[in-house]
Amino acid sequence: MPIHDHPIEARIDALLALSREHAETFCSPSAWLARERYLAAHPTRIIVMKCMDGRIHIPHATRTPLGIITPFRNLGGIFHLGWPYLGEMLTDAVYEATRSGHGVLMIITYHFSRGSRARGCAGFGCDTEAALAHAREIRTQAERLFGHDHRHVYPLVCGFETDGDALIVHGDDGATLDMSALTPADAASLDRRVAGLCADMPADIRRDLLPLLEGNLQHVDSLRGVQRELNIEHREWVICVGRGFDFLHLPNTALIVGPYSPDLSEPIGTAAAIIDANMKAGRIPDDGFLLLASTPYQEVGVDRARAEMKSRFLAEFATRVIHREHPKLARRMLNRTAVVHWPSRRLESLDHDTAAGA
To answer: Which residue range or ranges hold the Carboxysome Shell Carbonic Anhydrase catalytic domain (predicted)?
Structure first.
């Protein structure tokens, strides 16, 4: 029986087990050594702006060790760098990199399906051109923030074709580099191709982009001829609010609302409407859904206490929005509030599940 068809308690248990497995893998000696070796050879900091869709798992699709890529996830991959909290997080990441003498590669993604328009990004009504236009607008904002010369921060627009997990790199002149059109034999020519496509990309950043493209080339080739379930209907049953959801890369399971927008009520209300529609259509059981709030922390003491306070605030805020906009659905809501110890990626529960309508 697929996990979506299990009773809500069993679904929650499976989700938490997945988070524990992710932390164990991340903390293993082999994973730690892989990260250290990778960063020694490729020190450029990599940031990825992407949709919450579980199909878009960039470390997996590029065969990059866990912990190298810093993800920013939100419904539809919709961001504005003027949002105060988002802007602060990005500039802090850039400052940390530059103080260490490293550049930043900012990969701004949109996603689509070649096989069916309906499998595209729901945040843009499956309109690929609209999603691409938004990615380009984020790139323009990044240039205003970090400089048009791209010497220190290189904002790179990339498509992600979900049927084949292929990256499509966009150049300044409208040309693209589609990894699905290449074979592993083309790996040796990637440096030349990227240099021609992104002529102003600094050599050190281009050097550290290449392993991602080479990994994606191998990944895409490994999927050729493999039967995959592509026509996946919406069956989300989790609303995640906050950050620290790296373990959640299951297609159509969770709707992730990053704490970036000045108005979180809109995406939370949208996520609740999707859950409600899934229940009414019989795509998921109507015995409940999970609201999971999470905030990462680095150190014990004040940092963890602040993370706890922020997670509780996000949980309470989201609960109020759902009660106000979807009162019947709210009676089926189970809440879990957590913090994530970021160095180990361990999800730490702050309370027990409680029915919101009890």
So the answer is: 91-176
| Structural element, H or E, at residue 157 | strand 153-161
pLDDT in tens, 280-339: 989 899 999 999 999 999 999 999 999 999 999 999 999 999 999 999 999 999 999 999
Given a contact cutoff of 8 angstroms between Cβ atoms, the answer to whether 241 and 318 are in contact is yes
Half-sphere exposure at residue 277, Cβ-oriented, CA atoms within 13 angstroms: 10
Pick the CATH number of 238-355 from 3.30.465.10, 3.40.50.300, 2.40.50.140, 3.30.1330.140: 3.30.1330.140
Q: Among 115, 105, 108, which Cα is nearest to 46's?
A: 105
Q: What is the pLDDT at residue 323?
A: 97
What are the structure tokens assigned to 3, written together? 């996990």
Spatial separation of the C-alpha atoms in residues 238 and 184, rounded to whole Å: 38
Q: What Rg value do the Cα atoms of the chain yield, rounded?
A: 20
Q: How much is the pLDDT for 353?
A: 43
DSSP codes joined into one string, 183-230:
-GGGGGGHHHHHHHHSTTS-HHHHHHHHHHHHHHHHHHHHHTT-----
Nearest-5° Cα angle at 222, 216 to 228: 105
> Looking at the domain covering 43-223, what would its CATH class be?
alpha beta
- 248 with 54: CB under 8 angstroms? yes
**According to the model, what pLDDT value does residue 102 have?**
96
Sign of the Cα pseudo-torsion (79, 84, 90, 91, in order) = positive
- pLDDT above 90 as % of the chain: 77
Smallest CA-to-CA distance from 16 within 238, 329, 315 is with 238
Tell me what pLDDT residue 232 has: 61
C-alpha to C-alpha distance for 315 and 86, rounded to whole angstroms: 19
C-alpha 26/C-alpha 24 separation (Å) is 5
Domain residues of the chain, as ranges?
43-223, 238-355
Structure letter (DSSP) for residue 114: S
Residue 158, Cβ density class (10 Å: 0-12 exposed, 13-18 middle, ≥19 buried): buried
